[in-house]
Write a structure and sequence with these properties.
Blueprint lengths: L14 E3 L16 E4 L2 E19 L8 E21 L16 E2 L10 E3 L3 E4 L5 E6 L13 H12 L8 E7 L9 H16 L6 H12 L2 H9 L2 E6 L4 H12 L1 H7 L17 E2 L6 E6 L6 E7 L5 H6 L7 H17 L7 H7 L6 H4 L6 H5 L9 E6 L6 E5 L3 H13 L11 E6 L7 E4 L1
Parallel strand pairs: 8-9
Antiparallel strand pairs: 1-17, 2-3, 3-4, 3-17, 4-9, 4-10, 5-11, 6-7, 7-8, 10-12, 13-15, 13-16, 14-15
Helix pairs in contact: 1-2, 1-6, 2-3, 2-4, 3-4, 3-5, 8-9
Length: 447
């Protein structure tokens, strides 16, 4: 496998890229876990750490499901574990114990009966001790249940696939400025945070490449999660189909009550635990290949975020099942040029602008984003400083790559939307963010 872009930044004593060496995550704790009983492990030492994951833009120009760009807007997940206590079997899975021959970990047994308290800012389960608080984008619409929140349910899946639940006595605060449902990789960042949370909390000692295998089967495609995990401008592809594994993972993660019960955090109304036996499939190792691409330092990412959302599922549903050879060749030619041109200096605006064109997804999605066609017609001559423009991810955000006049380019796009009738029958309000390319990727900060 080509080397993953782990050398894109250097760690410091307190902060490092999630960088694994010799098959282990760099930040794995050296604390020894003691076996307290046949199904309980405990370490009295309090642990605190913060996971920081960048937003991302994907589908850059012709790079549908291929190119990703990490952005200087971050999801942070702050974690306090008041001494490690686990119910269930030892953390093993791939590291030497009880994953089944089918490659699936069985449901941990004998969870105890929990009680729960809820309020507007957090949900506590006294059996698991998992408390979630959240601030940021669409705070009133984000679940605080550990088995429903994308960060923690991803962590549950990864942990349970290794035959261990998440530890008890865990307090999690999520700060998420990344807009949801806008094409800035909010779900990809949450998934990356979730796999790292499981690795840190359960001391699984997984490499970044192995964590990416889990992220891929949850997220489904490599562009956003590769950019968020590794940082910078990245390209990636899948070595094998993940459809079957991804479907099985989706089924176990979609069953909130059963997932919670498998982690020892759910009970029915009469106080006895009710568990539908779930299997948590281990993804095939080395599912993807990820390569860092050069990015010209003077280029910035201007992201214009409209006030309406666009579900990725809907945006994917409008794509055709087949494409003409001419359209595929159109994208391939431009993709080959773009991946070089964006790293060259001096920058060649006309070439980059032309190479950002796409015939695979934007023409089919444009009717879902009012004003998009007019916005994509902006060019370096009509909008000085602009060198390339495209949808960000599945939309509706627009990504403009600029080398000067960054705010002015954003204002031009904002003005087009203001004069476009949106889903509510009014002009579309939007927000402009001038962002740098985040070269560091996901990091863990330890106190």
């Amino acid at each position: 496998m080509p080397k993953s872009p782990s050398s894109m930044s250097s760690p410091t004593s307190k902060q490092h890229p999630y960088n694994g060496e010799n098959g282990q995550a760099t930040s794995a704790s050296s604390n020894t876990q003691s076996i307290m009983s046949s199904n309980t492990r405990s370490s009295p030492r309090k642990r605190t750490f913060t996971i920081k994951v960048p937003a991302s833009a994907a589908n850059i120009g012709p790079g549908f499901d291929t190119l990703g760009l990490a952005l200087s807007m971050h999801l942070t997940v702050s974690v306090t574990i008041q001494g490690d206590t686990f119910s269930g079997s030892n953390a093993s899975g791939e590291n030497g114990t009880s994953a089944s021959k089918s490659g699936k970990a069985s449901t941990p047994t004998s969870p105890t009966t929990p009680t729960s308290n809820t309020n507007s800012s957090s949900i506590t389960n006294n059996n698991s001790g998992i408390v979630i608080t959240y601030e940021g984008s669409r705070a009133d619409g984000v679940s605080l249940l550990p088995s429903e929140n994308m960060v923690t349910k991803t962590a549950m899946y990864v942990a349970l696939a290794h035959n261990t639940p998440l530890p008890t006595n865990m307090i999690i605060h999520i700060n998420n400025p990344i807009p949801l449902g806008r094409g800035m990789g909010s779900s990809g960042a949450a998934v990356v945070a979730g796999v790292i949370l499981a690795n840190e909390a359960c001391k699984l000692n997984l490499s970044r490449d192995r964590l990416m295998d889990f992220a891929l089967v949850v997220e489904g495609h490599p562009d956003n999660v590769a950019a968020s995990m590794f940082g910078g401008f990245t390209a990636g592809y899948m070595r094998a189909s993940i459809d079957e594994t991804a479907k099985a993972v989706d089924e176990c993660m979609s069953s909130s009550e059963d997932l919670a019960a498998s982690n020892g955090t759910n009970s029915n109304s009469n106080g006895t635990t009710s568990i539908k036996k779930l299997e948590f499939p281990l993804p095939q190792p080395n599912l993807g290949v990820y390569m860092p691409l050069k990015w010209a330092k003077q280029a910035k990412a201007v992201v214009v975020i409209p006030s309406f959302e666009l579900a990725t599922k809907l945006a994917r549903s409008v794509l055709p099942p087949n494409y003409s050879r001419a359209d595929v060749v159109f994208n391939l030619q431009r993709l080959a040029v773009l991946t070089v041109a964006l790293g060259n200096t001096p920058i060649q605006p006309t070439i980059i602008y032309e190479a950002m064109k796409d015939k695979i997804h934007q023409p089919y999605r444009s009717h879902l984003v009012p004003g998009l066609t007019e916005i994509l017609e902006l060019n370096p001559e009509s909008c000085p400083g602009l060198i390339g423009i495209c949808m960000s991810g599945a939309g509706p955000c627009v990504l403009a790559i600029t080398i000067k006049n960054h705010e002015e380019v954003g204002r031009v796009i904002k003005g087009i939307w203001a004069n476009t009738v949106g889903p509510d029958g009014k002009g579309i309000d939007s927000q402009v963010e001038v962002l740098d390319v985040e070269t560091e990727g996901a990091v863990v900060l330890k106190s």
